[in-house]
Amino acid sequence: MSTTRTTAGTLRRAGLVTALAAAGVLTAAGAASAHVTVHPDSYAKGATDGVLTFRVPNEEDSASTTKVQVFLPTDHPVLGTLVTPRDGWTAKVTTSKLKKPVKTDDGTITEAVSEITWTGGKIGPGQYQDFDVAFGQLPDDVGQLTFKTLQTYSDGKVVRWIEEPQGGEEPENPAPVLKLTAGGGEGTAAPSGDAKPAAASSTASSSDDSTARGLGIAGLVVGVLGLAAAVFAVVRTRSARS
CA-to-CA distance for 78 and 112, rounded, in angstroms? Predict the structure, then answer.
């Protein structure tokens, strides 16, 4: 077998390994950011006057998202909830009576928002939409808030983002979770330093996005290492034959 043919075979094998490794990493990056999430992913307990952004990506290739329902917890309610208008979408806000009223400096709160439903708009394949919700105060007696979400597509399919992690593993359809950390104060952990509720849909930050970017970079590193290995194999083959 000639040196040229051996070199070509070595390059093909190295290229195949590199492509498969990079494809696996990039596929994982896409999966990491495909579900409905809330941004930022953490706030201080009892934080006031902030904004929560619910990011809804479209996962279907041939259908559009036409309805989004976000359910807010009432056992640890989010007080003073206001919905930011979103072009093309109509928001319906549902309030519920609290089993346990909440005492505040402004009086006792007996009702709170329990559901927000957006309809009338469309999220096409390969697109996402951010829905902004301003709040007056977050609870200070719990470690996290779970916002179960239903996503309805134009073909009638409904994806239920309602599952909570069990045993440290992420479920198939995880619900958006907001972690509440120790500390507090007005405006603590406000997203992007912007006090306006109407944040642009492309500005919300996310740990999932960071993970996806990290995985993408890892894929590029794998590719570079694969090419370097191929070059090394070629040089070693030629040296051996010399």
Answer: 7
pLDDT tens series, the chain, 242 aa = 555 555 455 445 544 444 444 444 443 344 345 799 999 999 999 999 999 999 999 999 999 999 999 999 999 999 999 999 999 999 999 999 999 999 888 889 999 999 999 999 999 999 999 999 999 999 999 999 999 999 999 999 999 999 987 777 888 999 999 999 997 544 444 443 333 433 333 333 344 444 445 545 555 544 545 555 554 554 455 555 54
How many angstroms separate the first and last alpha carbons of the chain?
15
- Structural tokens at position 44: 């201080």
Structure-block tokens of residue 220: 């590029």
Sheet holding 65-71, edge to edge: 90-104, 107-123, 65-71, 149-153, 158-161
How crowded is the C-beta side of 214, counted as CA atoms within 13 Å?
A: 8
Q: Enter the pTM of the model.
A: 0.66
